[in-house]
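One-letter codes give the sequence; backbone shape is given numerically. An example follows:

. . .
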Amino acid sequence: MARIAGVDLPNKAVKIALTYIYGIGRVTAVDICEKTKVNPDVSINTLSGEDIAVLRKVIEEEYKVEGRLRTEVALNIKRLMDIGCYRGLRHRKGLPVRGQRTKTNARTRKGKKKTVASKKK
């Protein structure tokens, strides 16, 4: 099992296995394969040590992945909350940030429903 950027990659095609790294999607994975001249359809376990080393080198040097990327995203969100902009307030309250409706839906951000007792007439 290959280990790149602190992630154990599964025994799948290189273009799929690289997507298990936070910050690398399908298009980026194919780009990395083109830069390193590694066949994207070959299984990770069949790659030689040199191929894995080249993949590791390109990812470390040219892409911001895993810990560095997570830190940057967290700092960006914290900056929005500190300056008190609309998006920052939405993050702070745990509501959807990108203009979605909240009267119904939005359960992923808002969490489980809190039932409010209705008063009797």
Remarks:
- The domain at 67-110 is CATH 4.10.910.10 (30s ribosomal protein s13; domain 2).
- The mean pLDDT is 91.
- The first helix runs from residue 14 to 17.
- The chain has two domains: 3-64, 67-110.
